[in-house]
Design brief:
Blueprint: E1 14-21, E2 26-33, H1 34-41, E3 49-56, H2 59-65, H3 71-79, H4 88-102, H5 107-123, H6 126-134, H7 143-150, H8 152-155, H9 158-168, E4 187-191, E5 197-202, H10 207-219, E6 223-226, E7 233-236, H11 247-290, H12 297-319, H13 324-360
This protein binds zinc ion.
Zinc ion (ZN) binds at residues 227, 229-230, 232, 244-246, 249.
Length: 361
């Protein structure tokens, strides 16, 4: 990675501005200097902004819910100290990691990186250095706290905070939020660039913007959910009934349901077939037993080996190594086998009777 680290622009006052379009179910997010963003929205092509995306509603909430990469702890510790008091390699590594964070597709993380870099450079100014020197301060005061406040939504588990609140307060889930989340301020501005639009602006922590966003979607009866098929966070119209995020995921789910249903049906059909045939053998055996003088032993042995073999074959059907139709064919052949053995026994019995009769004459 480039160790010259020239890629993050140094801004005076970087902001993140969001417009939420309920009707079109879209969000418009911009990062940059506030004046440049306003110029951009008013059609000035020379305006310099850092990021601009239009994407499905709720995506920024999902960005805030994603856990921040572990590199943030290195960044925090390296940037909280005076450069000349620490290992240079460690600081260079942390600068590269800050660039990694800046390059993320997650706009929340990009905004954090921009702000840390902005604040770091502000604290490197000669005036600040002189101030610190004259006051006997060797480390940069409160930069650690600054980074922690900045990254608040990503440091707490915002997703579970939201999902928990939605469980019990499905009309106004914000009632269930901890009051610490309502500290901080956001500002607004309006444009007529694409019809009347309202933009809410974060110039430091994004938490007030996130709260504004959640309030807007709750007023429209939309709630954050994680799709159980693709595991994506999205907005659903119910808080507590699991919903899928798209037609694509609904198709995947219905294919899964059908497969499950077919498997259950398969289980039922081969078990039922086995039970019917077990009773077929059992009833025949009982009939032979009632005939007292008949030697039913060969039938009983064949019945036992049918049960033994059927157990193996059922296992094979279950693991897919034997098809249901081959299994059904085998069951049928066993039924014929039972008939055959039974008639052999009865034939033997009637011959015995005949020969006994012959002897008596
Ligand atoms: Zn999905």
């Amino acid at each position: 990675m480039n160790s010259n680290f020239l890629e993050i622009p140094i801004v005076q006052k970087g902001v993140l501005a969001i417009s939420i379009n309920i009707e079109k179910q879209k969000e418009h997010v911009l990062i940059g200097e506030l004046d440049e963003i306003k110029l951009f929205l008013n059609g000035f092509s020379s305006a310099q902004i850092i990021s601009e995306v239009k994407r499905p509603i709720g995506t920024f909430i999902a960005d805030c819910c994603n856990p921040i990469p572990n590199i943030i702890s290195n960044i925090r510790s390296a940037f909280s100290r005076e450069v000349n008091t620490q290992n240079k390699d460690f600081f260079e590594q942390a600068k590269n990691q800050l660039f990694e964070l800046y390059q993320s597709n997650n706009l929340c993380f990009q905004f954090y990186a921009l702000h840390i870099w902005q604040e770091y450079n502000k604290r490197q100014t000669k005036t600040k250095k002189l101030f610190m020197k004259s006051n006997g301060i060797n480390s940069m005061p409160n930069f650690m706290d600054y980074i922690e406040d900045l990254t608040l939504p990503s440091r707490i588990s915002m997703e579970s905070e939201i999902i928990q609140a939605q469980k019990f307060y499905d009309v106004t889930p914000l009632d269930a939020f901890d009051s610490i989340l309502f500290q901080g301020m956001a500002t607004y501005f309006y444009t007529l660039s694409n019809g009347f639009s309202e933009y809410v602006v974060a110039d430091f922590t994004v938490m007030p913007v996130l709260i504004f966003y959640l309030n807007t979607i709750y007023n429209n009866h939309q709630y954050l959910q994680r799709c159980k098929v693709c595991n994506r966070l999205f907005l659903a119209h119910t808080a507590n009934i699991a919903t899928l995020c798209s037609d694509e995921c609904r198709r995947v789910q219905s294919r899964l349901n059908k497969r499950k249903y077919d498997n259950v049906k398969k289980d039922i059909s081969y078990e039922k077939n086995y039970k019917n045939n077990y009773m077929y053998w059992y009833n025949k055996l009982e009939k032979l037993k009632k005939m007292r003088t008949v030697n039913y032993q060969p039938f009983e042995e064949a019945f036992q080996s049918f049960c033994k073999e059927a157990r193996v074959k059922k296992k094979n059907v279950k693991d897919g190594s034997l098809s249901v139709s081959s299994y059904d064919d085998w069951i049928l052949s066993q039924r014929n086998n039972a008939d055959e053995i039974m008639s052999q026994i009865l034939r033997g019995q009637s011959q015995k009777k005949k020969s006994n009769l012959g002897q008596s004459f």
